[in-house]
Every structure is written in C-alpha cells, then in structure tokens.
Amino acid sequence: MGQFLEDKPTFEKMLAFLLDYLKPMMAKNGIIVGVEGRVKTEKSLAGKLELKGEKYRQISDVTDLVGVRVITYYSDEVDKIASLVEKVFDIDWKNSIDKRKMHDVDHFGYMSLHYICKIPPSLFSDPSLPKLNEYRFELQMRTALQHVWATVYHDTGYKSDIEMPREYIRPLTRMAVVLEIADEEFRTIRTSLENYRRKVRTLLKDGKYKDLELDGESFRHYLDLEPFYALTEKIASSFNAEVQETSGMIYLPILKHMGLKMLSDVEAMRKSCSDDAFRLALSQMSGTDLDIISSTLALQNLCLIYIVKSGHGEAGLKEFYDQLHGVRPRNASMAHRMYERIQKLLH
C-alpha cells in the first residue's frame, strides 16, 4: 500500500494521458460510445489484496491499478477497437483475457475483452515520472449492453457466481442471454442496413428505379442525383432569380401520402408533369418581383400538377398544403385558388 501511495501521481498521469489519447482516437474511427477510466482507490486495492494477496509480491504485479474502459454500440466493433490499441500499446498477452470466449456454449454471463498494456516511451513519457512506462494498465473493451450487464452484476456486490446465492444466478443469467441476443440483433440490423444502402446506390446508378421502394434511404440518394435541378434552373433563369437550397426530404411523407410507392413513381411524375410544372411556375411568378426561389419549387409544382391530373381535385390539394404547412384555415382557400389556376393551365 505504501508503494501504491508513493506512485499514485504516476497512476493519475497515466490515466489522464490515456483518456486524452483514446477519446479522439476512437471518435476519429466513428466507433465510440464512451471512454472512461479510474485509478484504483485505496479501499479497492486493500480488498483485492485481502482476497488475492498471495498473487502479488510488489505493487507492479497488480495489473489494474489504472483501468480504462472503451464502450461501443456494436459487438463486432470491439475487435476493431482491439486492433487499434494493439498498434499503439505494448500488450501483455499472457495476462490479457477475452472473457467472451471463456463461457461454455450453454453458459452466459460477463462478456468483455480485457487487455493488459503498457504505454511505450515512444508514445508518451514523463522524465519526472520514470515508472510511467513500467506500470501496466487494464483496458476493457465491450458493448453498451455488455456494460449494462456488468454494471448491474457489479452493483450486486458479488465477484462471481460462486459467491452469489443460487436463487439469484438464474435471473441474472436470463438477463445476460437477453442482452447477448440484443447485441447480435443490433449488429445484424446495422449490417443489413449497410447492405441496403449499397444496394440503393447501385440500383440508382444503373437507373433501376422500379426496383426501389420509396423510403428515406432511396429518396435521399435519389435527391443526391439532383433530379429536379434542370427544372429548377429553368424556372430561375426565366426570372433571373437566385436558387436557395432547401432539403427536399420534407416531401417524402407527402409523396407517400399521394400514393407513390416506388422511386419509379416519382421519376414517372417528374417526366410526365415537368412541362406543366414549369408553366405553373411562370403563371405563379409573372408580375412579381421575386428574385429568390426555393430549390424545392420544382418538386412542389410537380406534386400540385400530379394531384390535379390524378383527379384528386381541391381536396387533394388541401391535403397537400395540410402536410406541407400544417393544418390551418387558409389551406382551403389556397387549394381552391391553385385548383382554378391549374385547371386553366391544363385546358
């Protein structure tokens, strides 16, 4: 204990460096939920020595005086974190433990990857603390759900199932099973979504709009292709107006409410209604001194023309305005005026 107290400034310096180094390192790789750490307290060390004192001859034999934990969302990212830290720290493989591989196939419990490491002098050193590169620290890597289970288990006050009253082991094990399944499901969902994003990009690149359901992912990538750019520019140039960029994603629920189900439906609307949407813009803006138009004006006019051409009349236009602006009394009069304008335009 005397050695521990004497070298406590070294442990605190190690912890400060590790947190400052690991947080930006993990954030840069986009796989981080949190990085936390601690220097062991005197009380905790005393308890450890009381329980396992025969293992330690000197303070440097205790490998977790400094502990750092990296928590991520997905189980497969634990190995990515491990790969990153292996490149920068000296790993004591003999004392490192992968607790994910310690359970039998029919046993569930604590899941975490523990590395025992040293900070190499080439990475960081402090001449005033010569033992900084000699002491080891423990680096734990686990998912947020594994962290939940470990925290709850730790809060029970027991170090192992052997110590715990038997009637409490089963409910804790059930919880471990549920969280392990949830971890795998989250990983599977993320992988499936990544595969879907790649599929969307490929199909859009090949122009296969009919194979893509209209949803947030497909519509976002569709907008990236700027399908309404030509019509917007044609309107703007007719009035020497500047185009103000606005996200078209607000139109996704509107398009779906209009009955468009596939991306090919949106593309068909664009092709069949563009000329009339341009004429509608000319009718709207003639006699005005507008010098700025929204980049979504083309899409808005396409929707208005499509609604009338589809036979939904004033009621359909009112629903459009209700969704675009929110339900308000003036939407009915706007729909009436727009319906009359489009009717004249189409006839």
Topology:
Blueprint: H1 2-6, H2 8-28, E1 34-39, H3 42-52, E2 66-72, H4 76-86, E3 90-91, E4 97-98, E5 113-118, E6 137-143, H5 144-155, H6 169-205, H7 216-224, H8 229-238, E7 242-244, H9 252-257, H10 263-285, E8 292-294, H11 297-309, H12 313-325, H13 330-346
Parallel strand pairs: 2-6, 7-8
Antiparallel strand pairs: 1-2, 3-5, 4-5, 5-6
Helix pairs in contact: 5-6, 6-7, 8-10, 10-11, 10-13, 11-12, 12-13
Structure characterization notes:
By secondary structure, the protein is α/β, with parallel strands linked by helices. The chain folds into 2 domains: 158 residues, 2-Layer Sandwich (Beta Polymerase, domain 2), CATH 3.30.460.10; 121 residues, no CATH class. It contains 13 helices and 8 strands. The strands form 2 sheets. Strands 1, 2, 3, 4, 5 and 6 form a 6-stranded mixed β-sheet that branches. Strands 7-8 form a two-stranded parallel ribbon. The chain is elongated, with a radius of gyration of 31 Å. The protein starts with a helix and ends with a helix.
